[in-house]
Amino acid sequence: MSLIELSAFELVEGLKQGQFSAQEVNSSFADQVDLHDSKLKAFLRFDRQECLEQAAKIDSTGSKGNLAGIPIAVKDVICIEGQKTTCGSRMLEEFVAPYDATLISRLRKSDGVFLGKTNMDEFAMGSSTENSAFGRSCNPWHFGSVPGGSSGGAASCVAASLTPLSIGSDTGGSVRQPAAFCGVTGLKPTYGRVSRYGLIAFASSLDQIGFFARDARDVALILNESAGHDQRDSTSSREPVVDYLGSLGSDLSGLKIGLPIEYQSEGLSDEIQASVVEARRVLESLGAEVSEISLPMTQYGVAAYYLIASCEASGNLARYDGAHYGFRANCQEDQKSRSASSTPPDANRLLEMYCQTRSKGFGPEVKRRIMLGTYALSAGYYDAYYLQALKIRRLIQNELRETFTKVDLILGPTTPTPAYRIGEKSKDPLSMYLGDIYTVVANLAGIPAISFPAGFSTEKADQPAMPIGLQLQGPAFAEAELLKATWAFQNATDWHQRRPVLDGVVG
C-alpha cells in the first residue's frame, strides 16, 4: 500500500514504529501534489523544499509530537509567520503574515508539517471556490465540477490524497459543504472551541476554524492538538478539552438522534434523501434511536445568516482602504474633475484612492456582500433588517437548546444537491446562497457539526457519480459525541474509503 493511501492515524503509528520516515511520508504527498495539482489547483502556494526540510528536521531530532511528520494543508485565511496570507484576494496579494495563528503554533508544537496554503473563495465569501482572485479549484471526482467553498482547496486536496489533513474555516458551512462535495469528513467545532487568533475575519460572530480528513478518527487526532482556551482570543472558551481520539467507539446504544421534518424540503435531491434514509437504518443498527423532530425556525436561517454575515463583513473589511497595508490603487489625478470640485485637492485624492482601491482590490461577490451589509446597517434600515436577523438568531438558538434536551444529535443532509458543474450557479447568487440551507443554522447557534461521506449520486451524461455528504449536529461542546457517532457509521460503511481516479491513478 502506498503511503498516500494511509490515514493520518496510520501514518502517525507507522512513524512511531519506524516503518518509514517523515521525509518519506512528505515526499510521497509532495509527489502527488506535483503530479495532480496543476489541474486541481487546490494549492495557492506549495514549497516542496520547505516541506521536506521540515520533515528532515523532525527525523533528525527524533521528535515525539503527536502529529510528528504528518503533512497538513492550510486554508489561505490563516496566518503563518513569514508566509503570504491572501484570503484569495488581490487586496492581500502581497501581505506576509508577521506572526503565527494560535492554531499554527499549537500544530508546530505537535510537529506537524505545513504542506502549503490552499485556494478559497475570496475572504471566505462563496460556496464553490470560483470567487478566488487566483483562479478556481476543481473537484477531484470530476474536474468540471466545483469542490464547494469557501474551503474548496482544502477539501479537494484531502480527497485527491495530496495531504491527509487540512484546515479550513466555516462561517456558514465552508468546511462541511466542500467536505460533502468532495467525499471527505469535515468538522466545524463549537464557536470558541478552537482559537480564532490569526484567522482573518469575515464575520466574527460566525467564523470558526475547522478540519478536513478522510475519517472521524483523523479529525479527532488533529482536534486533540488544536482545541483549548487561548487568552489572545476573547471569544475562546474555557470549557475543558476531552480526549476526542479516546472517545471514539462503535456502540451507539442509548444515543438519541433527531431527524427534522423541515430538512425534507423542496429542492432536496431524491438521492440525498435516500442516503438520509439509509444512514438512519445504519445508525439504528448500531444501537441509536432515531426519531422525527421539528425545527420550524430553521426555515429563516438562510435569510438571517446572510444579513448578519454581510453586516459583519461590512465592518471587518472596512480596514482594507489602501492606507495601512494591502493593495493600494495607483490613482491618476483627474485635473478636469479636480478643478470643477469644491472638495480640497488632498481630500479628493484620498477619496479617489479609497474608492479605486476597494473597487479594484475586491471581487464582485465581496463587493456585493459589503454593499448588502452596509445598506442593512444604514440609518432607517438597521431595525428593519439587522435587528430582525439578530432576533431570528436568538429564536433559532432557543429552539435548538430546547431540542437538545430531547435528543443528543440531529441528523440531516449537508447540502440539497451533490456538487454542480463549474459555472452552473456563478451568475445566480441566490441559488448558490440557498445551497447553505442546512449548514448556516450551526453557525448562527454556535454549535458543532460534522459532514461525512454517505453515498454517491447516479452518473449523468455530463457528470460522473458524485459524493453525497450527510451532517450531524450536536449541542455546544459535543464534538466527542459527533465524532463517535460518525466513526461508528464509518466502521459500518465504506463510503469514506472510496477515492477518485486522477489521470488513471487512484487518488
Give the number of DSSP strands.
13
How would you sum up the global shape?
A: globular
Sheet/helix structural class:
alpha/beta
> How far from one another are the termini?
13 Å
Helix content: 25-40%
The helix count comes to: 16
N to C succession of SSEs: HHEHEHEHEHEEHEHEHHHHHEHHEEHEE
* CATH architectural name of the domain at 3-255 and 447-501: Alpha-Beta Complex
Arithmetic mean pLDDT:
95
Strand order of the largest sheet: 1-3-2-4-6-5-10-11-9-7-8
Gyration radius (Cα, Å) is 22 Å
CATH top level class name of the domain at 3-255 and 447-501: Alpha Beta
Q: Could you say what the CATH topology of the domain at 3-255 and 447-501 is called?
A: Amidase signature (AS) enzymes
CATH superfamily of the domain at 3-255 and 447-501: Amidase signature (AS) domain
Low-confidence stretches: 333-341
Model description:
The protein has helices at 8-16, 22-40, 48-61, 102-109, 152-159, 176-182, 216-226, 270-285, 301-316, 335-339, 345-361, 364-377, 382-403, 429-434, 440-445, 479-492; strands spanning 43-46, 71-75, 113-118, 165-169, 185-188, 209-213, 256-260, 289-293, 409-413, 449-456, 467-473, 501-502, 505-506. The chain is an alpha/beta fold. Among the domains are: 3-255 and 447-501, Amidase signature (AS) enzymes (Alpha-Beta Complex), CATH 3.90.1300.10; 327-361, no CATH class. The strands form two sheets. The protein has an eleven-stranded mixed β-sheet, with helices on both faces. A two-stranded antiparallel sheet has the order 12-13. The two termini are 13 Å apart. Residues 333-341 have low confidence and may be disordered.
